Amino acid sequence: MMMSGFFRIGVWQNFLRAWRSGFSGNLEGEGFTLGGVYVIGAGRQGVLLEHREKEFGDKVSLPSVLEAVEKIKPQAS
């Protein structure tokens, strides 16, 4: 995202939300890498949930993570 991320209103909204809720991270690092969440099933199930940040502070929906985790089937041994 580089500088374009600095000018996005959503980034500032996410920053304020985190700041108001008491975020106390170290803020170290290069600061240009977006994150994501993957839920991967056992064996050949593959990826059950993929969430990639579209902008800094974009959070994954907890109910969707729980739903994906419930779909994981134990691998037959």
Rounded to the nearest angstrom, the distance between the terminal CA atoms is 44 Å
Measured on Cα atoms, how large is the radius of gyration?
Answer: 16 Å
Approximate shape: elongated
Q: What is the chain-wise order of helices and strands? A: HHEEH
Tally of DSSP β-strands: 2
Number of domains: 1
Mean pLDDT: 82
Widest sheet, order of strands: 1-2
The helix fraction, in percent, is: 25-40%
**Discrete helix count:** 3
Structural class category: alpha+beta
β-sheet strand percentage: 5-15%
Query: Biggest sheet, in brief?
Result: 2 strands, antiparallel
Uncertain spans: none
What would you note in describing this structure?
The structure is a single chain. With 77 residues, this protein is of the alpha+beta class. The chain has 3 helices and 2 strands. It has one domain (9-71). It has helices at 2-6, 9-20, 62-70, and strands spanning 36-40, 47-52. The mean pLDDT is 82. Its main location: cytoplasm.
Outline the fold blueprint.
Layout: H1 2-6, H2 9-20, E1 36-40, E2 47-52, H3 62-70
Antiparallel strand pairs: 1-2
Please tag this protein with its features.
alpha+beta; Peroxiredoxin-like 2A; two-stranded antiparallel ribbon; elongated; 2 strands; antioxidant; 77 residues; cytoplasm; single chain; redox-active center; antioxidant activity
